[in-house]
Amino acid sequence: MLGPAVTVPAVVLGIAVYAAPPGPARWGWVAVTVGLVAGAPVALVVALARAGVLESIDARPRRQRLWTLAALVAIEVAAVSVLALLGAPPLLFGLVASCVVGVVVMALVTPVVRASIHVAALAVPAGAFVHVAWPVSVALLAAAAVVGVARLTVRDHTPLEVTVGMVAGATTGLAAAAVLLPS
Questions:
Q1: What does pTM read for this prediction?
Q2: Angle of CA points 52, 57, 62, to nearest 5°
């Protein structure tokens, strides 16, 4: 229920609603951001799972995770590039780009540790939101902790994998946002 196919669109929607400036263009930015940054990647993963290319939308085997994450990195970088070309508001761009850096880091960590992407999908934006709205960070970290406990309970991850997802995710979001958010 709280896998990346659900949490990523919810988080991206929350980021877009929070960061898009008020006015007539607000909901246009929300729609474009959610479609590009969440819709396209989720559609790809669901299509690959339905076609039998992936074992499931969770891409459990490490080999499937590696090339799925590589494809997601490409899609996310393209999405952020389109947002930049469209002149996305700086706060919106910075928060979304920080999350994309998180996808890149998870792709780099995966060959070493099968970090929990379920946890990282919430921990990365939690780290980024420290800079703009710490109560949002607290809520996202609490949700990431609940997801982490659930992943341990169903034995889909080890404590190390959940911890790496949480720590690498939150640290990446925090550091990326420090660089990418407007002053």
A1: 0.94
A2: 85
Q: How far apart are CA 136 and CA 138, in angstroms?
A: 5
Is the Cβ–Cβ distance between 40 and 79 less than 8 Å?
yes
Measure Cα distances from 140 to 8, 61, 69, 126, 127 in Å. 12, 27, 22, 5, 9
2-35 pLDDT tens trace = 788 899 999 999 999 999 999 999 999 999 999 9
Structurally, the chain folds into a number of domains equal to 1
Under 8 Å CB-to-CB from 94, ≥6 apart: which residues?
19, 128, 177, 180, 181, 182
How many Å apart are CA 138 and CA 87, to the nearest integer? 30
Structural domain boundaries, residue 78: 4-180
113 contact partners, CB below 8 Å, separation of at least 6: 160, 161, 164
